[in-house]
């Protein structure tokens, strides 16, 4: 479990990072997915560009009603309250359940999102927000809606010459209700079913169902999950996913029901 | 714990803090991977990517002829043969590097040598394999069917051994009040010690000796095996086992990797090291626990067992490992299935199936974990059918204390104990009525029991019957004083978590009165210790403990004679107490340290007729009879099942355990707790699935789930202490016990929760998928 030989570069600015990318380098943020893949030689990039020292790569800024989270912001920083307000509370709750603290100390929100592992936590949560991914490429910044960012298993809307620079999320008004549920039996295990439900006052209730070995399913009008008896709606949604092993389908239904219940009870 | 003199008790029965913990807790432990030598080369193995194939060739990377070695390059190295003496055993020849066939994923094909492991792995990646795939034998149940491909082509079928016993069970259907049949399965597991395997070999040209530093439980057995296969005198092989980060049976083996590294160290004239990584562990060495049972049992209306019939298959993998062989598990099933009960009639058939999987090794508890699961879930099924309680059916069948020592129908002899009392004590400590009330209120909670006994420290008479390459004889220990009066104990067992650096010092203190701080326990080096078959089979406390006591007793006699002379007294007028030889009349005394100084440094003061053997004694010990001690336990579990997710949450875990006299109760607690944690893994988490092509499917610890701190509940322990009449202090082997009961107790509790919904779990581990499937099937 030692990686094949590769060259390591630490770009000082974004243009240099893009140049390395153009030269075939693999971008690395926290390295919590790429590192093990390289150790197992499942990934054998000839060069790695370590993005962690790029200006503005990590950190959170709030402008007006928008929160911009640098792609290199660690799960641990989010867990520890880097994002303010209600949104921050919600994201901290998600971050807290990502693997172990040691992983969270290095793993980043942008790295995880652009790796696009279907079982990953941010992949299962970010598309629920009416936010945008900020891509940076040779032509500068480009905005991609979060619910259109993930295109498939380990596939995103990023062009090969683009990097994810930040995630922008709308701050959440008082009265927003939130539910999140994922099934893994021990920390560090990949989720077998994740669901989240977001009810922003005055907007349609949104939900995401994920970690089913398929790209996350965004449910744009998920109000029925907030009803007292969401079973039928959960069953309807899961039935629409196509064939799943029965136990996995049961977990998926439970995920939607329990995330809905949590949102319903979220005061 | 203080004695009347105010001295902290240190002898047998004291919960003395572990002497070795200062080293471990401060990070000063030293494992194979911590050791480097000048000029050392690292080895990475090219391993088979397929489960069954004809190996047609392997092209070495260009220019790497002297850095990549196949079997053809290993001049004079034999195959590993672990032959059982049981009639009908089929012999496998395990090449240390594959020759003409590949028989499981992960089988080593070539050794690649480089200054770093990464460069060695580069060489592995550059090797080009040529093979022709063969039909894969991936399922033990169909392995024996006609027309199936043969793993070993000169065999008539894919089985190492079949054993049977036939009682006349024909009347039972007519007279039994209940009959149940269950088909049960346990999954293949990885033992997953924190430290994997590893070996570092150097050749000492001056001594013409291999120095093999390896992570093993049995250094002397490894030495014998290595010498035989390499064609060396045993004196040319010195095996050192430094700190070893967990054994569990995984390191009770002569490794092909050890043989290859030893050969390369001689050939290359440089130290050679191989460290197993977790990927190798998971994919090349998933090698334990895979059993399948069809059990039928009959009972009368009171729950008394009338008979049982068992058809058991164990997936033994592709080869017979040295020294325990491929049949230790299956062949034992017949002898241990009656469990702690007075079973009157019993038939069985066991098969050690040969498949395209890694060779099976005995994991903590060996066959008992699977047998206990099969027997105890069957007992509950009978109880449910009869409408009696799980407690009642067990009390109706447990061997009563007045029958001890008890010989059961297959000839196992239980030494001592009150098995029913262990169950009664457990039940007195559990709120069963409260659990029943919660069930009545609709909660999906359940309660489960497992009662079992564990034969440990079984000796010559037992192993001679099995005909495996090692038969333990008299366990030996050396006791000797240094000139400064420090007592040195040398033992051939190895301590890798058992705390024997402490418990053996306690035994020495018990006999000689030397402070444990001045007792040094030396182990893990064939050059320094007497021969021993090593640490396995829950034998350390009984065998090494007994040997140390005997060596210390004889050393005390030598010291007493010297002391009496120094005190100018007759030997009969003095006694050994408190680390000194004292006149019985309360007069003068001379300490053992003074006696040591006299022997080594002031010999002019010795009597003319002193025993010339001096202050060094090697002594042997074997209990009589040596059929083994039987510790026993009752595990009692309360848990909740989430019917939506299939998830199990343990609410309460109780162990009532009798290990006879406990040398150090705190260390025994640790042994039981660690065993239970592993048993919880077997029950709920651990499984290496193989697909039909024989590919292992869990390649990391994110897929192969081990219970961690967050998955293991607080475990309540209660000890009974019924001494064994056959051992030096009454101690019994208990090291494996904790890992035996959990799958049975936990699944019994799950089924207690589920049976109101018509569901029953039969296969291990009881994962959410299996629990949900059971509920689904009942719908």
TrEMBL record, chain A:
Entries under SUPFAM superfamilies matching the protein: FAD-binding/transporter-associated domain-like
Keywords: FAD, Flavoprotein, Oxidoreductase
Family matches, as InterPro entries: Diverse_Substr_Oxidored (IPR051312), FAD-bd_PCMH (IPR016166), FAD-bd_PCMH-like_sf (IPR036318), FAD-bd_PCMH_sub1 (IPR016167), FAD-bd_PCMH_sub2 (IPR016169), Mopterin_DH_FAD-bd (IPR002346)
Domain of life: Bacteria
UniProt key word Flavoprotein: yes
GO terms for MF: FAD binding; oxidoreductase activity
Pfam families: FAD_binding_5 (PF00941)
Listed Gene3D superfamilies: 3.30.465.10, Uridine Diphospho-n-acetylenolpyruvylglucosamine Reductase, domain 2 (3.30.43.10)
The FAD-binding PCMH-type domain, residue ranges: 1-174
Protein name from the UniProt record: Carbon-monoxide dehydrogenase medium subunit
From TrEMBL, chain B:
Domain Aldehyde oxidase/xanthine dehydrogenase a/b hammerhead: 26-135
Taxonomic path: Bacteria, Pseudomonadati, Pseudomonadota, Alphaproteobacteria, Acetobacterales
Protein's organism: Humitalea rosea
UniProt keyword Oxidoreductase present: yes
Cytoplasm recorded as keyword: no
Key words, A-Z: Molybdenum, Oxidoreductase
Highest taxon, organism lineage: Bacteria
Pfam family of the protein (one): MoCoBD_2
This protein's name: Xanthine dehydrogenase molybdenum binding subunit apoprotein
Gene3D superfamilies: Aldehyde oxidase/xanthine dehydrogenase, a/b hammerhead (3.90.1170.50), Aldehyde oxidase/xanthine dehydrogenase, molybdopterin binding domain (3.30.365.10)
GO molecular function terms attached to this record: iron ion binding; oxidoreductase activity
């Amino acid at each position: 479990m030692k990686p094949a030989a590769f060259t390591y570069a630490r770009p000082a600015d974004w243009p240099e990072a893009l140049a390395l990318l153009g030269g075939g380098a693999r971008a690395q943020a926290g390295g919590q997915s790429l590192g093990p893949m390289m150790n197992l030689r499942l990934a054998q990039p000839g060069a790695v560009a370590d993005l962690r020292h790029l200006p503005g790569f990590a950190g959170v800024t709030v402008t007006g009603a928008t929160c911009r989270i640098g792609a290199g912001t660690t799960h641990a920083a989010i867990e520890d309250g880097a994002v303010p307000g209600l949104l921050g509370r919600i994201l901290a709750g998600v971050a807290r359940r990502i693997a172990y603290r040691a992983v969270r100390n290095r793993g980043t929100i942008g790295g995880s999102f652009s790796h696009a592992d279907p079982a990953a936590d941010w992949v299962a949560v970010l598309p629920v927000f009416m936010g945008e991914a900020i891509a940076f490429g040779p032509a500068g910044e480009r905005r991609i809606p979060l619910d259109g960012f993930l295109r498939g298993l380990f596939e995103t809307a990023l062009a090969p010459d683009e990097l994810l620079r930040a995630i922008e999320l709308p701050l959440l008004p008082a009265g927003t209700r939130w539910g999140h549920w994922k099934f893994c039996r021990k920390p560090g295990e990949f989720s077998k079913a994740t669901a989240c439900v977001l009810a922003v006052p005055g907007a349609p209730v949104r939900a995401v169902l994920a970690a089913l070995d398929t790209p996350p399913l965004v449910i744009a009008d998920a109000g029925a999950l907030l009803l007292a008896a969401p079973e039928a709606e959960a069953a309807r949604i899961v039935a629409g996913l196509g064939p799943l092993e029965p136990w996995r389908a049961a977990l998926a239904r439970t995920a939607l029901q329990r995330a809905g219940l949590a949102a319903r009870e979220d005061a | 714990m203080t004695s009347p003199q105010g001295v902290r008790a240190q002898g047998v029965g004291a919960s003395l803090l572990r002497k070795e913990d200062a080293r471990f807790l401060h990070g000063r432990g030293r494992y194979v991977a911590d050791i480097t030598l000048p000029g050392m080369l690292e080895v990475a193995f090219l391993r088979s990517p397929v489960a069954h194939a004809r190996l047609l060739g392997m092209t070495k990377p260009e220019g790497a002829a002297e850095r990549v070695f196949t079997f053809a390059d290993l001049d004079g190295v034999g195959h590993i043969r672990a032959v059982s003496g049981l009639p009908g055993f089929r012999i496998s020849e395990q090449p240390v590097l594959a020759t003409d066939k590949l028989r499981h994923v992960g089988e080593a094909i070539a050794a690649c040598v480089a200054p770093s492991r990464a460069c060695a792995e580069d060489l592995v990646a550059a090797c080009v394999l040529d093979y022709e795939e063969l039909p894969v034998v991936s399922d033990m149940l169909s392995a024996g069917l006609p027309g199936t491909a043969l793993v070993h082509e000169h065999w008539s079928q894919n089985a190492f051994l079949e054993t049977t016993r036939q009682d006349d069970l024909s009347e039972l259907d007519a007279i039994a009040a209940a009959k149940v049949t269950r088909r049960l399965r346990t999954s293949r597991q990885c033992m997953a010690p924190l430290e994997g395997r590893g070996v570092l070999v150097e050749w000492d040209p001056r001594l013409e000796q291999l120095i093999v530093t390896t992570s093993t439980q049995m250094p002397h057995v490894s030495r014998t095996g290595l010498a035989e296969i390499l064609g060396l005198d045993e004196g040319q092989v010195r095996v050192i086992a430094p700190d070893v980060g967990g054994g569990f049976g995984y390191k009770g083996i002569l490794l092909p990797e050890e043989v290859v590294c030893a050969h390369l160290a001689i050939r290359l004239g440089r130290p050679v090291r191989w460290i197993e990584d977790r990927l190798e562990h998971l994919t090349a060495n998933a090698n334990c626990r895979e059993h399948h049972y069809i059990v039928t049992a009959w009972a009368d209306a009171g729950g008394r067992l009338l008979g049982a019939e068992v058809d058991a298959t164990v997936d033994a993998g592709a080869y017979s490992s040295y020294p325990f062989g491929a049949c230790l598990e299956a062949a034992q099933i017949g002898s241990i299935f009656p469990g702690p009960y007075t079973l009157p009639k019993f038939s069985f058939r066991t098969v050690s199936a040969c498949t395209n999987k890694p060779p099976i090794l005995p994991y903590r508890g060996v066959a008992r974990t699977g047998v206990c699961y099969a027997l105890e879930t069957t007992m509950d099924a009978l109880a449910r059918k009869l409408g009696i309680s799980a407690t009642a059916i067990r009390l109706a069948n447990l061997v009563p204390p007045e029958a001890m020592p008890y010989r059961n129908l297959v000839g196992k002899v239980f030494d001592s104990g009150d098995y029913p009392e262990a169950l009664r004590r457990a039940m007195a400590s559990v709120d069963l009525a409260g659990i029943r009330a919660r069930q009545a209120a609709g909660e999906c909670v359940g309660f489960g029991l497992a009662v079992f006994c564990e034969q440990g420290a079984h000796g010559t008479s037992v192993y001679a019957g099995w005909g495996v390459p090692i038969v333990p004889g008299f366990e030996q220990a050396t006791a000797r004083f240094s000139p400064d009066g420090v007592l040195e104990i040398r033992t051939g067992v190895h301590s890798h978590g058992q705390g024997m650096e402490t418990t053996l010092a306690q035994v020495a203190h018990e006999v000689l009165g030397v402070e444990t701080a001045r007792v040094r326990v030396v182990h893990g080096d064939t050059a320094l210790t007497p021969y021993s078959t090593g640490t396995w089979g829950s034998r350390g406390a009984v065998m090494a403990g007994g040997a140390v006591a005997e060596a210390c007793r004889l050393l005390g006699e030598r010291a007493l004679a010297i002391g009496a002379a120094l005190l100018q007294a007759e030997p009969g007028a003095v006694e050994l107490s408190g680390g000194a030889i004292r006149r019985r009349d309360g007069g003068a005394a001379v300490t053992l340290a003074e006696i040591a100084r006299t022997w080594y440094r002031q010999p002019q003061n010795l009597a003319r007729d002193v025993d010339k053997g001096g202050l060094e004694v090697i002594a042997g010990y074997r209990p009589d009879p040596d059929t083994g001690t039987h510790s026993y336990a009752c595990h009692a579990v309360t848990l909740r099942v989430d019917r939506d997710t299939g998830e199990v949450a343990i609410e309460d875990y109780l162990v009532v355990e009798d290990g006879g006299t406990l040398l150090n109760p705190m260390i025994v607690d640790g042994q039981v707790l660690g065993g239970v944690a592993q048993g919880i893994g077997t029950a709920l988490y651990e499984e290496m699935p193989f697909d039909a092509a024989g590919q292992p499917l869990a390649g990391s610890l994110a897929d192969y789930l081990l219970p961690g701190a967050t998955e293991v509940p607080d475990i309540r322990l209660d000890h009974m202490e019924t001494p064994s009449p056959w051992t030096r202090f009454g101690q019994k082997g208990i090291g494996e016990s904790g890992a035996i009961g959990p799958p049975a107790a936990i699944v019994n509790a799950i089924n207690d929760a589920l049976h109101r919904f018509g569901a029953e779990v039969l296969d291990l581990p009881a994962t959410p998928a299996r629990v949900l499937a059971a509920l689904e099937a009942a719908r």
